[in-house]
Amino acid sequence: MTVTITNDGDEVKTGVIFEFEEDDPFELKSEAKWTIGTLDVEEEITNTFRIEVDDDTLEDEYDLEFTLDDDKDDFVDEFGIEVGSDNSDLVVGSVMSAPGIISPDLEDIKLTIKIENLGGGDATFVRARIELPEGFSASSSFSDSVDLGTIGAKGDTEAVFFIDSARALNSGRHTGVLVLNYKNSVENEIQRLEFDLPTKGRPLFSIISSVTEPKKVGVGGSGRLSIRIANIGEEEGKETSVRVFENADFPIDFDEKINFVGSLERGDEGTAVFDFEIDNNANPNTYLVKVQTRTLSEGNILVEASTVPVVVIEGGGKWTLNRGFSRYRFNIDLCNL
């Protein structure tokens, strides 16, 4: 760097000293301090400095400070130096997910991470791998890494991953790590870049109990199935309903298949009741009836599935009939005729 100093004032300057303040990414390879002494009016003087730039410096503009002093005044300023580089510089540009809101108990969330190369050189043989925070996992053993090839200087590309969220996942901002292995113009590089996974809670339902009345229903008999659910999630579930599914292989016929429970805040419970009949030619067995909970949250319909048992036995069963304020219990024995 060639520095020229001119005395544009109207008096002679004495005790003039110019000095660079060395700072990253610059290193002075010549004497940083230049003692000038006296500088007459309109006198011009020139000196050359050798400055080295650190090898790993990224493309950018950097400031190199200097001081210019004389017997009367002190002056501090800086030179802006544009540094070019043949090295690549990879950063996370953006992170997008599908669905747009990450919530608990989801599978195959599509995670698209945009990787930008801000450097002046290509990054070649790029391979990206994600390290997920607690509460997240890769959807399969092959969905946590991807080969991206070459990311050119000033270019970008997208890495796509598929992940699952745990059922027990708190709302908030979770931090993942994108591990990049690649080769720049000089050597192999490994970068660990953090990215955010913002999550929002949702209503989640757990079946607390399922009871049939009677507990064991006889072939050809009838009964009542009561399913008690609780909202164990973080958000309210609106217009919540419970649905039971009939199976062609099961000898169970439900009078109504959908029972509305209503809106359930976090921690609230509700009960759905279904009357059913058992076919006369049923085989005694324990049948697992598919149950589906549906609820509305922020305009989205959320569905969860589970199963509850219904026990069918030979012979009679017991059930209760409600008439007004009285309850009558009947014991009926069935036998083969």
What does this structure look like?
With 337 residues, the protein is mainly beta. The chain folds into 3 domains: 2-83, Sandwich (Immunoglobulin-like); 90-199, Immunoglobulins (Immunoglobulin-like), CATH 2.60.40; 205-331, Sandwich (Immunoglobulin-like), CATH 2.60.40.10. It contains no helices and 27 strands. The protein is rod-shaped, with a radius of gyration of 38 Å.
Summarize the helix and strand pattern as letters.
EEEEEEEEEEEEEEEEEEEEEEEEEEE
Q: Kindly state the number of beta strands.
A: 27
Task: Kindly give the count of domains.
Answer: 3
CATH-wise, what's the superfamily of the largest domain? Answer: Immunoglobulins
Q: What is the number of helices? A: 0
Q: Major beta sheet, specifics?
A: 5 strands, mixed
Mean pLDDT: 87
Strand order of the largest sheet: 18-25-24-20-22
Structural topology:
Blueprint: E1 2-6, E2 13-21, E3 26-28, E4 33-39, E5 44-48, E6 51-53, E7 60-69, E8 74-83, E9 90-98, E10 109-117, E11 123-131, E12 136-138, E13 145-151, E14 156-165, E15 172-183, E16 188-199, E17 205-213, E18 216-218, E19 222-231, E20 237-244, E21 252-254, E22 258-264, E23 269-278, E24 285-297, E25 300-313, E26 318-323, E27 326-331
Parallel strand pairs: 18-25
Antiparallel strand pairs: 1-5, 2-4, 2-7, 3-6, 7-8, 9-10, 10-14, 11-13, 11-15, 12-14, 15-16, 17-19, 19-23, 20-22, 20-24, 21-23, 24-25, 26-27
